[in-house]
Write a structure and sequence with these properties.
Helix content: 25-40%
Order of helices and strands: EHEEHEEHEEHE
Number of domains: 2
Distance between the termini: 31 Å
CATH class of the largest domain: Alpha Beta
Strand content: 35-45%
Structural class: alpha+beta
Number of helices: 4
Strand order of the largest sheet: 2-3-1-4
Radius of gyration: 19 Å
CATH superfamily of the largest domain: ACT domain
Shape: elongated
CATH topology of the largest domain: Alpha-Beta Plaits
Number of strands: 8
């Protein structure tokens, strides 16, 4: 079992997200992450999905997605060079002055932004890889225990141009 990444080009219509997520829930596949946004063509959206599965299950998932009428193209990103980022907000509460100083140092080390600060709290805004965000959360959990709130936006990925032909990716309706 490992994390697998899929990019889907889908018709930008009401109910498509529900159908795609319904496929996963109906087959008891657990989604780790799902993000959706429109592309340069307003009639097409791109979904970036992370699912934990074995090889056989992952092949079934891709085949089932390909059979959906609303799905234009399925791209397996699991073993492809990609650029990926995930948005993350971490609010740290009940901070002393020393805690705030430490949080500013952590923010500088991880190259994240301190986007808000209050009398006893700090809000960090991160745009890192999923792994780096995991590392940041682990560090903050260890240091600040139950005083953090985490909001993650899910990974967004695109194929690398320099190591593949991804720069010329085209999608066509079936």
């Amino acid at each position: 079992m490992k994390n697998r990444w899929i990019a889907l080009y889908v018709e930008n219509q009401v109910g498509v997200l529900a159908k795609v997520s319904g496929l996963f829930s109906g087959k008891s596949y657990n989604l780790q992450s799902l993000t959706v946004g429109t592309t340069e063509d307003e009639t097409v959206s791109r979904m970036t999905i992370c699912v934990t599965s074995d090889d056989i299950t992952f092949e079934q998932i891709k085949k089932q997605l390909n059979r959906m009428v609303e799905v234009i193209k399925v791209i397996d990103l699991t073993n492809v060079p990609i650029h990926m980022k995930e948005i993350l907000f971490v609010k740290v509460r009940n901070c002393s002055v020393a805690d705030k100083t430490e949080l500013f140092q952590i923010a500088q080390t991880f190259q994240v932004e301190v986007s808000d600060i209050g009398e006893d709290s700090v809000l960090l805004e991160c745009m890192l890889t999923v792994r780096k965000n995991d590392e940041l959360i682990a560090l903050l959990n260890k240091r600040f225990h139950n005083n953090i709130s985490v909001v993650r936006g899910g990974g967004v990925a695109i194929e690398s141009i320099s190591t593949s032909e991804a720069g010329r990716t085209e999608y066509r309706k079936k």
